[in-house]
Amino acid sequence: MNSSYHSWRAAIRIARRDAWRYKGRSFLVLAMIALPILGVSAADLTLRSAELSTAQTMERKLGTADARLDDPGMGGSPLMQSPNGDNYMPVGNFDNRPYPEGKGDVSKALPAGATSLPDTTGRAKLRTAHGLLNTEVREIKASDPMVKGMLTVTDGRFPKKDDEVAATTHFLENSDLKVGSKVTARGLDREYTIVGAYELPDALDTDQINALPGALLTPLDKALEKAGLPTSSASTTYLVQVSGGFTWNMVKAANAKGVKVESRSVALDPPADSEVPLFQEDGWGNFEQSTAAKAAALAAAGTVVGLAMLEICLLAGPAFAVGARRSRRQLGLVGANGGDRRHIRAIVLSGGLVIGIAAAVVGTILGLLLTFALRPVLENYMGARFGSFDIRPLELLGIGLLAVFTGVMAALVPAITSSRQSVLASLTGRRGVRKSSRVLPVIGLVAVTLGAAIALYGSTMTDQFIVVAGGSALAELGIVALTPALVGLFGRTGRILPLSPRLALRDAVRNRGRTAPAVAAVLAAVAGTVAVATYAASTDAQSKADYEARLPHGAVSVMIDEDGGRDVPSVRASVQKMLPVDVRADVDRVSVGKAGCSMYDGGEGCGRYEVIVPLANQCPLWRTDPAHPNDDPWEKFSKAERRQLAKDWRCLNSNEVSYTDSGLLVGDAKLMQVLGIDDPAAEKALTAGQIVSFDKRHVDTKGKIGIRLITDTKAADEAQEKGKEAPGEVKSFATYQADDQQKSYGVSMIMSPAAAKAAGVQTVPFGAYYSTDKMPSSEQRQQLDAELDKTGSEVNLHVEEGYTSENSIILLALTVFAGLITIGAAGIATGLAQADAEADLKTLAAVGAPPRVRRTLSGFQCGVVAAMGVVLGSAAGVLPAIGLRLTEKRQEVKWYEEALDQGYAGSDSLPYVPILVPWATLAALLIAVPVGAALLAALVTRSRGALSRREAT
Fold first, then answer.
1. pLDDT score at 953
2. What is the pLDDT of residues 477-515, one digit of tens each?
3. Whole-model pTM?
4. Is the dihedral of CA 778, 784, 787, 793 positive or negative?
5. Which of 165, 225, 830, 867 could pair with 862 as two cysteines, CB 3.0-4.6 Å apart?
6. Neighbours of 730 (CB within 10 A)
7. Closest Cα to residue 426, out of 341, 546, 501?
8. What are phi and psi of 692, to 5 degrees?
9. What are residue 118's phi and psi, to 5 degrees?
């Protein structure tokens, strides 16, 4: 025991001295190991710091209050909720009747002796230095001790008067206002002074202002109601403090009065699932990630970490081999002075141990410092403040041990190889004759066969991606094990090559111990790159085939569904002014009720319309039987009937985007011109007051379309639930049915303004369509976006550019990554080859070989390693991607068949799942990367070495 201790101590001292002597090589290996450790330790620290404890979460949500009470809008009906309040449902059976609706009374749920504080939020458009900004308005007395922890003051103070507000720092940045500035809300003739800046620790990117209760939202809503415009949609919750905390029994008592509760004490000490009434209902439960899912996630993470460590070992292993080769005389002296093979192995392994420990320390410290220095940047990126700077020593120790393990594993093969050399060979520089292992190729062949079989099974017999990925990973490891044998096969091509590449190839084949790890490292990197690139290119091709253009190429649309179209005229003019517009077609929408209502506003005084589908044109699979309104219509059909009906023209769904209900727009013939619809008869019909229809399902046998104007939306919803027609006045319009094959880009019907006016149908401005002389430039788009932001409205702007791929930058990044790995691995192997061949190079120089031979040989040595790795990696990488795509195809076909069985189908054709090889990426890897590696090695190699006598052999 004592002898082993002293021998390892001496080995570590020798390894430490050698690492310091060869600083360049040591730094290279240290960087390769430390960089991943830096990233992982920084990620661990960031995630742990951002992970809030339950107490911290409650402080940010509730401040110092014990609970937050909220009216869920069920009219005070008793309800059941989960302990955290995220899920809830009314008590009773509502399978055949709608959920209760209406306002409840939160005050009835307050325990005796409780203190409450209202917290009201709404939205308003505030005037800023740039225009209008849609902002959240929060009315709460922020100076109250109950709010401490929810809002953090960064400058100034919270408001104390009704004409004062505070604003979030994000709002001040976006509005270009500051503390002391005046701010007004659109629609309200009153100024407010910004007296302070604050932030929401959990939502740093929120535009919000704080006012005293009733100071802003109440007068704003009154002014908006008077103008016939939508209100701020304010909602109020109540922070509550009660002696002893808000217990689970109190929560259930509040639920009985129709109030939902988020309690601090319940969050800190949640009840058992058996005590939660909601969890006893069918379909509800305390859902958590299953053990199998956790195991799968851990297996995936372990696979990624393992493959990353393998890549580092393959890259760092040749570097340790270089060190061992250059220290062979020193290792020979150890043997000559009584050291045995275990001492030689200990010295080389200690090199990996020393650098691994150094990499762990450096990587962890740099990760800590980097995270600490970038904490504000990380918090702003994540949109939330850290709970604390949470350092987990055991986790960082585990990450550091990975670095140590990786360093030792990288030095393992060089250690075994060095220990097998005889003392005489080490002292004289002779390398002797080595036989390649016969076991490793057999293991590799078995792994490749087994992995390929698993991947094939996964892609043809199952729907599990993990099976394909696991089989592919096993096959790739098998190819890595086969690399020495494959390198030997490459050597047979040397007879057809010129002198320098032939020498380089034969040298690589004869020294497989240093060539194989480098080739395997390149293989692994390139295989991963090619697999991801092939998969990305294939999915990109599928997305391109599935892409549905919303407009003709180069056309523009802009829509606003707010405030009764108040901002539409200015937005129409801005688009026409800032883009190269050819034809502009203004469009309106049908409005029922108050003109200020938005399209889907269900508030008081707001209605809606519906385009009537004649009974004969309704899809039987969707048509509700009034006698049995609660039955699913499709259940009465057999599977074969559902499949047949799914392809019926009445049941086909369109993937085109429609801006309004049923795709009805109010416009003129210019709209058809912008949409590329060349139909003179349709233009004539539109001018004559007819509706132009592009969907024959809405046209009845008399050639007319009926539009029902619904003013009582609640009664309409109740009627539809019973399978009956909704109450409302029906307006009938003569119709011109266009060609079914005409592409209308989501516009199902066009009604002229004159026809709407003649029928007494109310319309409001909605937007416009534009054709352009040329595709708008990026600069024009940016200027337009800035101009539209000033309106403060939700502007739906679309410029039809056709399908644009987002994978080009990904493919480029993958190519660059693989190229760097390839050049690095090939460079390490070339450095080792030069160390081995120094005597031969000196001999060549002595017999008169030109200086360029040294450069040429070095370049070809690097290029040969790169070429072998790239060729093998490309072949190994395509197969996993093909397997994954085949699995996806089986899944999508299965889903399509299931949809047909249930009567759903978007089209008549099977899903299109192509497999596309990225030839440009492969060409760059197969040609550009090896050539670049060879040229780079040739350029950095000195033409003349130090001429000296050849060592005696």
1. 42
2. 787 777 778 777 777 777 777 777 787 777 777 777 667
3. 0.71
4. negative
5. 830
6. 11
7. 341
8. -95, 120
9. -70, 145
